[in-house]
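Slide 14.
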Amino acid sequence: MVLFLLIYLLMIICALICVSFVTLLERKVLGYIQIRKGPNKLGLIGLLQPFSDGIKLFFKEQSFPYKSNYLIFYLSPIFLLTLSFLLWVLYPYLMNLYNFNYGILFFMVCTGMGVYGIMLSGWSSNSNYALLGSIRSVAQVISYEVSLIMIMLCIVMFVFSYNLMDFMYYQKYIWFMFLSFPLFFCWLSSCLAETNRSPFDFAEGESELVSGFNVEYSSGGFAFIFLSEYMNIIFMSMLSVIMFMGCDLMSIMFYFKIILIVFWFIWVRGVLPRFRYDKLMYLTWKLFNGLSLNYFFMHLGLLLFVLYI
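Slide 15: predicted structure.
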């Protein structure tokens, strides 16, 4: 038990360091997309910038709206960060420190709970902008969870297991991405919407909602929401690699593929304009859900054919 706690703590620290450098990567990539330099003054090529930003955030004054629901307002960012920490329990360790047989189900539960954190943080601020941002975000996340779960079930049928380790064994000779190419692109788009990233970042529409559901947060509260969002992005990138791109944990290419997906998240933010909200809902309910449902029945039919005929 002590060994498990130590290794889990080490993994969380590594994830937090990873978040700090992903923010630096994002600012650098967006800078070069917009034909300018990113942060490059603090330390060698700006490597100390994330630590400077973190220190600045945590040392700022914590302010609270006068009419906010103080306790819920204070605890919502902590709840969101705790959920992001819990997701990293699913990291597939090769040394069999613990074996998570129902990892996919645990992921579905944690992402479903994330909706409550967003909703409560917007509502407890007692601000119209924050409430509108949280309502938008909740509607978006719930809608895209349907397609996300359908796509996951389609891929689970290949391995007949909820354990993430089994994806490594079954993708030894061919990646699942090649067996279901359209599903892979649906998955990537759903990941963008699930993590509230551009072009689906309606919870943070600056032109009409200032900064969305986190508009009233400052200092540590904002930092916790920020960390939670970026930890979810890195985790979704890792899950994409595990499920579709050959989960070879013994190879350094596994981590390069994660960096590639993270870079894709940033690249999409730099080149695509924000969607219209009705187009966002149309995309999931009319396109992604229909496609994933068709794939689900096709995979189910093939499975029954192989097992019983």
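Speaker note: The chain has one domain: 58-308.
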